[in-house]
Amino acid sequence: MKALKLRKHLGLLVALAWGLALPAYGAVFVQCPGDLNGDADRLDAGEAIPAARPNSVCMHLSAGDGFVTMADGYLQYIFGFSDLTGTPPDQAVAAGLLAANFPAPTIALKQGQEFYLTLTNVAMAMRPDLFDAHSVHFHGFPNAAPVFDGVPEASITIKEGSSFTYYYNIVEPGTFMYHCHVEATEHMQMGMLGNLYVAPKQNDLAPGSNLAGHIHQAGHKYVYNDGDGSTRYDVEVAIQLGSFDPAFHDASMNVQPLPFAEMKDRYAMINGRGYPDTVNPGPLAPPADNGGIESQKVSALVTATAGQKLLLRLSNLSVTNLFTVTALGLPMKVVGQGAHILRGPGGANLYYDTGSVTLGGGEAADVIIDTAGIGPGTYFLYTTNLNYLSNNTEDYGGMMTEIVIQ
Q1: Which residues, listed in sequence order, are joined to residue 193 by a DSSP beta bridge?
Q2: Which is nearest to 5 in space by CA: 67, 49, 62, 92?
Q3: Going along 133-192, which residue ranges are E strands?
Q4: What residue spans define the domains of the chain?
Q5: Please, what sign has the CA dihedral across residues 59, 102, 122, 184?
Q6: For the chain, which end, N or C, has fewer CB atoms within 10 Å of the first or last residue's CB respectively?
Q7: At the fourth CATH level, which superfamily is domain 2-199+234-405?
Q8: Taking a C-beta distance cutoff of 8 angstroms, is the pair 233, 309 a contact?
Q9: Are the C-beta atoms of 332 and 367 separated by less than 8 Å?
């Protein structure tokens, strides 16, 4: 442990020195309409969303490394993204070092928006011997231009000390996800993935609009542009299933050959946490000796009021496993899969009721739980793959969280 701490301090000092010298041969460059100071945040004095881009939104992410703490207390080295939005360009590299989040910062968008996403590769503080490029792949999204897709064979990837701004014309609603596509098996196993979803235009209807007998009211929200109100919900929670192989992460930290062929995930998680950390409503405490940087910010606790309709935006980005999850004692209705509403070619409704949902890597499902007639209490969302109800060798944990009906 002392050797690890010494190496962390030395690695951070080397990386900070590298980062402070960065402007001499690299640059943090953010493209965002109306942004005058390069921080991707247009709330500063004198800045405004330009009339020519009224629906534009901006975000700045870093790509680098860091640490997270598993539910059994084990420290795990990761690669990941962090949110630099609002950080001045001359401070972005220092802010992104050792700041990797798992999962990555959640991205929530609206249909009809233009999304400018800048990615800055701040390099690996703990692995200065690595010169990995990174990218953002908007999984399942129909990009008009391959250059923005993030796949190395057909698009741009971002080298250390460089920035690139992706442009997305948000034309379709649904539950998506995003991840790095460079050396995808390694970088995704190491933690470079996150929640991403798009709300439909139907949410913005004028109150009183008639949707085939369903009257739209102020505050009504829908999963898709269903035309009849059948995907209405009150509360939504993005739930990303995932897992880690600690031997793989430790090998990366210790500069050892990576055991791709022997990869076996032993930590199964929801939103980057194993039970009981999943029911913590706030960010988890920063990993030990990590400079006070919070790296696990996305809670997996689900809460609703009795009578409400609850939307679970389920996704799986595991590179090794498929998972089956169930909400014990609660009715589950699947209304969308793969960021598409479940409708037949002629518009026939193909929603279905189920007791569980199975997702392979890269799959997503939109599940509505109607709590009408459900008594207040604590219910459990968990995997039926019983071997994943543990935190490595510690039982009674893993891929499980609570749904609290008040």
Answers
A1: 179
A2: 67
A3: 137-139, 163-169, 174-179
A4: 2-199+234-405
A5: negative
A6: N
A7: Cupredoxins -  blue copper proteins (2.60.40.420)
A8: yes
A9: yes
C-alpha 124/C-alpha 327 separation (Å) is 39
CB 270 within 8 A of CB 239: yes
Q: Number of C-alpha atoms within 13 angstroms, CB side, residue 150?
A: 26
Residue 214, Cβ neighbours under 10 Å: how many? 16
pLDDT in tens, 109-163: 999 999 999 999 999 999 999 999 999 999 999 887 889 999 999 999 999 999 9
Read off the tokens for 165: 């701004």
Q: Is pLDDT above 90 for 169?
A: yes
Amino acid at 41: D
- 289: which 2 tokens? 């000796």
Cβ neighbourhood burial of 152 (10 Å; 0-12, 13-18, 19+): middle
C-alpha pair distances (Å), 294 with each of 101, 114, 127: 8, 29, 20
This model's pTM is above 0.90: yes
Distance in angstroms (rounded) separating the CA atoms of residues 344 and 280: 40
Alpha-carbon distance of 81 to 84, in angstroms, equals: 9
